Amino acid sequence: MGAWELLLAGVIIVLGLCGVLTPGVPGSWLVWAGVLWWALNDPRPTAWAVLVGATLLLLLAGLLRAQFTPRHASRTTDLARRPGPRGYAGLGAFLGFFLLPVVGAVPGFLAGLYLHERLHEGRRPREARAAVRGMMRSGGTALLVELYAALLILGAWLLTVLLR
């Protein structure tokens, strides 16, 4: 597999990560499609192992997401209705995932939500923490599960490509 194809697979995976944060876009499946395309063009056993792992991880994330999706969300804290916090949370999870490998995505996600509430909503610390708890109850946990699965797939793909 050439450098351009590898770069294109990486772009598809990163676009999938952005798609996870965008309502209505099947971002996690774009991540999977990028890994599939890479595995089809790089027929080594490690590529296929990453693809199988990505498939199982996305199926597990789908089951967990269904468990965490609220039946009825509050209008004031629904994360799906507000694009600003999703961007901050996604950037925080991405930075946390690579600064504190793997486990840093969760605190990064929460820190991104908190930072948005403090900076853009002008809330005091206590109110911002309460708003973050409300957002996590009203769909934030489901979003975090899907984003974390996509980040794990990105990490596995990147590690396999770099160790080649």
Automatic annotation (TrEMBL):
Keyword presence, Transmembrane: yes
Transmembrane stretches, start-end: 7-40, 46-66, 87-115, 142-163
Keyword Zinc-finger assigned: no
Pfam families for the chain: DUF456
Keywords (A to Z) from UniProt: Membrane, Transmembrane, Transmembrane helix
Protein name: DUF456 domain-containing protein
